[in-house]
Specification:
The complex is a heterotrimer of chains A (55), B (400) and C (532). Chain A has 55 residues and is mainly α. Chain A contains two helices and no strands. Classes of the chains: A mainly alpha (55), B alpha/beta (400), C alpha/beta (532). Chains B and C meet through helix 3, helix 5, helix 6 and helix 13 of B and helix 9, helix 10, helix 18 and helix 19 of C.
Chain lengths: 55, 400, 532
C-alpha cells in the first residue's frame, strides 16, 4: 500500500477510533459516572485536611 | 428596695403604643413624628411643635395578618409593628420617617404605606424613607445632611409648617440633651457595687423616653433621679453576676426582668433604643451649622451593625468592651431577635471577639419579640450562663 | 384572569421525546446523555469535547492540581459536564447553541478565574508579583470601579465566584459543608445561605489567599453586608490584606444618593491606586464603557425578541452569562462583545424560524425573585413539562440606560456617576432594594410589556426583601388578573427544599389552580434529589 493511501487511512482510523471511544464515553455519561464514584473518596480527603478554623 | 415612686407610671406608658401622653401632646396641637430606627437623628424629629414617637407594639400576641403580608420569615418586631398598624394602633402618627436601615423594618413600613394603615383623616400625612450612612466618613456625613434635609426637615416644614431653622435645631438638641443627662445620671447608679436601680427599672424608664413625648415625662424623670439619690439598696444583694446586654432592640422589659430573676443584674444596655449610644449627649459648637453637627454625632456614635467599614466593625466590639469595663460587667449577653440578619452576624462576630480578644464570658442567644413565648428556654440559658460565670470566678479564686 | 393565546409547535422535536428517561434514581448523574437527533447530538458532543479540553488544559498545570487537593470546593468542578447536561436538557437547534455558547464561555471564564486564584494563592502558586497586582472583590461585586484599570497591570479577582457561587451550580451539596461550619460558629440558620456559606468558607480557611488589597460591598442585602465583616477580619488580621468597604446606597432611584455613591466610587478607585501603584486610565475606562453600552443594546434587543410569541433567550445558561457579563466583566473583557453578538445572531435566527422550546406554550411567565442555585435547570423543566414559557427572570432585568462613552472633561465626571449607577443597579438588588416600586411596579410593567399572564415567584425563604412583600404580590396580582405561582426554596441549601419539593410546588399549582396536565409526563417527577 502506498504511503499516500496509508497515511490518510491511519489518520482516518485514528480519528474514527477517537470518535468511537469519546462518543461512547460521552453518550453513556461514563465520564460523570466515573467521577461520581471518585467523589466520596475525595470528600474523605478534604475532611482529613488540617485547617485553621476560627471566626 | 422600696419601689420607685413613678415606676408604675412609666410601666403604664409602655402598655400601649398610643399612650396617654401622645394623646395629650396632640391635643396641645403638636405634630407626632413616628419613626422605627435609631439611626434617625431624634432631635430633628422634635423641632418646634413636632415630637418623636418610636413605634413599638407592646403585648404582641397573634401576628397572623402581618405574617400573611410578610411571611413568618421576617423578624417579629417588623411583623409586630405591621400587625399593630393594621389594627389601627398607630393612628396617632402624623407622619412616619423610616431609614432604609435593615430591610425588614423598611418592608414593614412600606407595607403600612401600601395598606394605608395611617393618616386616613389627615391630608398632610406622609411617609418618608431615608438613605442612611454605611460608614463614618465625611462623605457619609454629607449624605446624612442631605437626607435629613430632604426627608425630615423639608416635609415637616412644608406639610406642618415646622420651624426647621438652625436655632430650632439647637433648641431641640438642648432639650434632647436634658433628657439624655437625666437618663444617663439614672443609669450611672448601675455602676455601684450595690446598685440602687435594677436593669428592669432602668429599661422601663429608658424605653419610655423613646415612646413618649419627652417634654411630658421630663418632670417625672427628674423626680426619679432625685428619689434615686436617696434610695437605699437592699442589704442582701440578689445578684450573682453583672451582665452587659448587647443586641437588637428590646421592647419587652420582661426580658430584662427574666434575666434578673436568674440573679444576673443587667448593669448596662447596648442595644437598639437602649441608652448606649442613644442617650449620649450631642455636643454642639457655634462654628458649624447644627444640622451637620447632629448628623456627624449620629454617624460617629452609631453602633448599628450595618455600619460596614472595619473601623466601625472593630470599634463596636471595643465599645462593648469599654462599657463592660466601665460598668464592671462579669459577662456579656449578645442577643438577637430571630430572623434579624444584621444582629445574626454581629452577635456571632461580637461574641467571638469579646470572648477571644477581650476575655469576657459571653452568652449568645436569639429570642422572640415577646419573651413570654420562649421564657423557659431563655431562663435555662441565662441560669447556665450565670452558673458558668460563678464557676469561673471560683476557679480564679473568687467567691461564688 | 388574563389569558394568552396558546402557541403550538408545528415541528416535532428531533431525537427522543421524553428527556425524563435519562434520569436514574440509583445514580448521582444522568444514566446517559440525551439523544437529540444526529445533528444536535453531534453538536452537543463537540461541545462536551470542548469542555473536556478546557478542564484538561486546566488540570495539567501542577499548581492547579495542588489547588484541587487543597480546596474542598474544587470537587464541584469535576461535575462541570454534569452541569452542562443540566443547562441543556431537552434543547435543540438554536436553543441548544445559545445555551452552549453562553455556558461554555462562562466555564472558560470561571476556569481562568480559578487558575488566576491559584497562581497568586499563597498556599498554592504563590506568585508574589502576580498576587501584588491582584484586587480581591466579592462575588456580588459590580466591578465598575475596576473599569479604568488596565487588565494587564491589575487583576480583578472575584474569588467568591468560583469558590461558592459557581461551584454550587455544579454540585448541589457542596455548599452544605460551609453552611454547617458557619452555623457551628454561631451564625443563625435563618439568614441567606449565600453570604453565610461565604462566611463559612472564610471560617473554614478555604478561600485562596492572594491580592494586595480587597474591596467589599453591600450590594445585595443585609446578610451580604454583614458577612463581609467576618471575611475582612481574617483578610486583614491574619493575612495582612487591607480591605475597603464600598458603600452602595440602597434607594438607588432617589437622585439625592448619587453624589454619595459617586464619591464612594472615587474612594474605591483611590484605594486601588494606592495599593496596586497603578493609575486609573481614562482610555481604558471609555473603551470599557463602549462595551458596556454594546452589551446593553444587545440585552434590549434580546428582551424585544422575548416579548414576541417566539422567545429565544431564557434559562440558566443565559442568565448566568448575563450575570457574568454585567457584573463580573463590566466591559473590561473584549471577548464578551463577540459572544454577545453571536448570541443575538443565534436568537434572531431562532426567532425568524419560529423555533420553540416545547410542544406548546400555554402561558407566558415572568420569573421574579431569586433562583435556587441547586435547581438551575428549573426553567427548562418549566417550559418542557408544563408549557409555561419564562420570558425573562428578575436577575436579567437590569440597566437599559446608556453611559457616557466619549472621553471629554464633562464625561469624566459623569463617568463616576455612571459607575455609581451601575453599581447601585447591580443584578437582583436593583429590584430587591430601592423601595417597593422597583420590586412590585416594575414587575407589573414587565408583565404588560411582555404580554405575560403568569408570574412564577421564586420565594427564596431567607431573602427578607422579597418575602417582606409577599402579601402585596398576592393582592396586586389578583387586582391585575395575573396568575402568581409561588415556589419556595432556600437558594443553596437543598436540605430545606429538595429539588423535587421545588418542582412539586409548580406541579401542584398547575394541576389544582390551572387544571392542566403536563406536556411531558416523563419530566414531572424526576428522581434527581440525590444527584449532584
Amino acid at each position: 500500500m502506498s504511503k499516500f493511501v496509508k497515511i490518510p487511512l491511519v489518520l482516518l482510523g485514528t480519528v474514527l477510533g477517537f470518535f468511537v471511544v469519546t462518543f461512547t464515553v460521552y453518550f453513556f455519561n461514563l465520564d460523570m459516572k466515573a467521577t461520581s464514584l471518585l467523589a466520596p473518596f475525595l470528600e474523605k480527603w478534604y475532611d482529613h485536611l488540617e485547617r485553621k478554623q476560627y471566626i | 428596695m422600696r419601689d420607685l415612686k413613678h415606676l408604675q407610671y412609666f410601666e403604664d406608658l409602655l402598655q400601649v403604643a398610643n399612650n396617654a401622653l401622645i394623646t395629650q401632646a396632640r391635643e396641645e396641637g403638636k405634630v407626632c413624628v413616628a419613626y422605627t430606627c435609631e439611626n434617625v437623628p431624634e432631635p430633628l424629629l422634635n423641632l418646634d411643635r413636632a415630637f418623636s414617637i418610636r413605634l413599638h407594639a407592646p403585648h404582641t400576641g397573634s401576628m397572623d395578618i402581618a405574617t400573611y403580608y410578610m411571611t413568618n420569615l421576617l423578624c417579629e418586631p417588623s411583623r409586630a409593628l405591621l400587625e399593630r398598624a393594621i389594627e389601627g394602633g398607630f393612628n396617632f402618627a402624623d407622619c412616619v420617617i423610616t431609614p432604609d436601615g435593615c430591610t425588614m423594618m423598611n418592608r414593614a413600613v412600606e407595607n403600612m404605606e401600601l395598606l394605608k394603615t395611617m393618616g386616613k383623616d389627615n391630608p398632610n400625612f406622609f411617609h418618608e424613607y431615608m438613605e442612611i450612612a454605611f460608614k463614618n466618613t465625611d462623605n457619609d456625613v454629607n449624605l446624612a445632611v442631605l437626607q435629613c434635609k430632604n426627608h425630615i426637615l423639608t416635609p415637616l416644614h412644608e406639610k406642618y409648617g415646622i420651624d426647621i431653622s438652625d436655632e430650632a435645631i439647637r433648641k431641640a438638641v438642648a432639650e434632647h440633651n436634658e433628657i439624655c443627662r437625666l437618663i444617663r445620671a439614672i443609669g450611672d447608679f448601675r455602676k455601684e457595687d450595690r446598685p440602687r436601680i435594677t436593669g428592669y427599672e432602668y429599661h422601663v424608664i429608658t424605653l419610655a423616653s423613646y415612646v413618649c413625648p419627652k417634654h411630658l415625662i421630663k418632670a417625672k424623670l427628674e423626680e426619679t433621679l432625685e428619689e434615686l439619690k436617696t434610695r437605699e439598696p437592699d442589704e442582701k444583694q440578689p445578684w450573682r453576676a453583672r451582665i452587659l446586654l448587647v443586641g437588637s432592640e428590646v421592647d419587652d422589659s420582661d426580658l430584662i426582668k427574666l434575666i434578673e430573676e436568674q440573679g444576673a443584674f443587667v448593669c448596662c444596655d447596648r442595644f437598639c433604643f437602649g441608652s448606649y449610644p442613644g442617650r449620649n449627649e450631642i455636643v454642639l459648637n457655634d462654628d458649624e451649622d447644627a444640622l451637620t453637627q447632629v448628623c456627624r454625632h449620629y454617624i460617629q456614635n452609631c453602633q448599628c451593625p450595618r455600619m460596614m467599614n472595619m473601623e466601625k466593625v472593630y470599634g463596636r466590639k471595643q465599645y462593648v468592651a469599654d462599657l463592660a469595663r466601665e460598668y464592671k460587667a462579669d459577662g456579656i449577653i449578645y442577643e438577637q431577635v430571630k430572623f434579624c440578619d444584621p444582629w445574626a452576624y454581629e452577635r456571632t462576630l461580637g461574641s467571638a471577639m469579646l470572648k477571644d480578644d477581650y476575655g469576657y464570658p459571653v452568652l449568645s442567644v436569639d429570642r422572640p419579640y415577646s419573651i413570654a413565648s420562649s421564657a423557659g428556654q431563655m431562663r435555662t440559658r441565662v441560669q447556665a450562663f450565670v452558673e458558668s460565670i460563678e464557676i469561673k470566678s471560683i476557679q480564679r479564686g473568687g467567691k461564688a | 384572569m388574563k389569558t394568552v393565546q396558546k402557541v403550538v409547535n408545528p415541528v416535532r422535536r428531533a431525537g427522543e421525546q421524553s428527556p425524563g428517561k435519562i434520569y436514574d434514581p440509583k445514580l448521582k448523574v444522568r444514566a446517559r446523555r440525551e439523544w437529540r437527533g444526529v445533528k444536535d447530538t453531534f453538536y452537543d458532543y463537540t461541545r462536551w469535547l470542548y469542555l473536556m479540553s478546557v478542564l484538561g488544559r486546566f488540570i495539567i498545570v501542577p499548581r492547579n492540581v495542588k489547588g484541587f487537593f487543597r480546596y474542598r470546593w474544587m470537587m464541584s468542578y469535576l461535575f462541570v459536564p454534569h452541569g452542562m447536561d443540566k443547562f441543556t436538557v431537552g434543547l435543540r437547534d438554536e436553543a441548544l447553541r445559545l445555551a452552549h455558547t453562553s455556558f461554555n464561555f462562562v466555564i472558560a471564564d470561571v476556569t481562568q478565574a480559578i487558575a488566576n486564584c491559584f497562581r497568586g494563592d499563597r498556599r498554592v502558586g504563590n506568585d508574589k508579583a502576580y498576587s501584588d497586582a491582584c484586587v480581591v472583590t466579592d462575588e456580588n461585586s459590580m466591578v465598575t470601579f475596576m473599569m479604568g484599570f488596565d487588565t494587564k497591570k491589575v487583576h480583578t479577582i472575584l474569588r467568591e465566584v468560583p469558590t461558592m457561587f459557581a461551584s454550587n451550580i455544579f454540585h448541589q451539596f457542596n455548599v452544605m459543608h460551609y453552611l454547617d461550619i458557619a452555623q457551628q460558629y454561631g451564625i443563625s440558620g435563618d439568614v441567606c445561605p449565600m453570604p453565610e456559606a461565604e462566611a463559612g468558607i472564610s471560617i473554614d480557611d478555604d478561600f485562596c489567599v492572594l491580592g494586595c488589597c480587597a474591596v467589599q460591598n453591600n450590594t445585595t442585602c443585609d446578610g451580604s453586608l454583614m458577612g463581609n465583616g467576618i471575611i475582612a477580619k481574617r483578610l486583614e488580621r491574619e493575612y495582612g490584606i487591607p480591605t475597603f468597604q464600598l458603600a452602595t446606597p440602597l434607594r438607588h432611584k432617589e437622585p439625592d444618593v448619587m453624589d454619595y455613591a459617586a464619591q464612594e466610587i472615587k474612594n474605591a478607585i483611590a484605594f486601588v491606586e494606592e495599593h496596586t501603584g497603578v493609575k486609573w486610565d481614562w482610555d481604558v475606562y471609555f473603551r470599557a464603557a463602549k462595551r458596556v453600552n454594546d452589551a446593553t443594546r444587545c440585552r434590549i434587543a434580546q428582551l424585544e425578541i422575548n416579548s414576541t410569541p417566539y422567545p429565544q433567550f431564557f434559562g440558566a445558561a443565559f442568565s448566568l452569562y448575563n450575570d457574568t457579563n454585567y457584573m463580573g466583566n463590566s466591559g473590561r473583557n473584549a471577548d464578551f462583545v463577540k459572544i454577545d453578538h453571536k448570541l443575538l445572531a443565534l436568537a434572531e435566527k431562532g426567532y425568524r424560524e419560529k423555533r420553540m422550546y416545547a410542544k406548546e406554550y400555554r402561558h407566558r411567565a415572568i420569573v421574579w425573585g431569586v433562583q435556587p442555585q441547586y435547581v438551575i435547570d428549573m426553567l427548562y423543566w418549566l417550559v418542557q413539562c408544563w408549557g409555561v414559557m419564562p420570558l425573562t427572570d428578575m436577575l436579567s432585568v437590569i440597566n437599559t440606560d446608556m453611559i457616557a462613552e466619549e472621553d471629554t472633561p464633562e464625561n469624566r465626571e459623569q463617568a463616576y456617576r455612571d459607575m455609581a449607577m451601575l453599581n447601585m443597579e447591580m443584578i437582583m438588588r436593583n429590584h430587591t432594594h430601592g423601595g417597593y416600586k422597583v420590586l412590585l411596579d416594575d414587575l407589573w410593567e414587565l408583565c404588560e410589556k411582555m404580554n405575560a399572564d403568569m408570574v412564577m415567584m421564586w420565594e427564596h425563604m431567607s431573602c427578607k426583601a422579597l418575602t417582606g412583600m409577599h402579601g402585596m404580590f398576592e393582592e396586586q396580582a389578583r387586582e391585575r388578573g395575573i396568575h402568581i405561582m409561588w415556589v419556595s426554596h432556600d437558594l443553596c441549601d437543598p436540605r430545606v427544599f429538595t429539588r423535587s419539593a421545588i418542582r412539586d410546588q409548580v406541579s401542584a399549582y398547575m394541576r389544582t389552580v390551572m387544571r392542566e396536565e403536563p406536556l411531558d409526563p416523563s419530566l414531572e417527577n424526576i428522581p434527581d434529589n440525590e444527584a449532584y
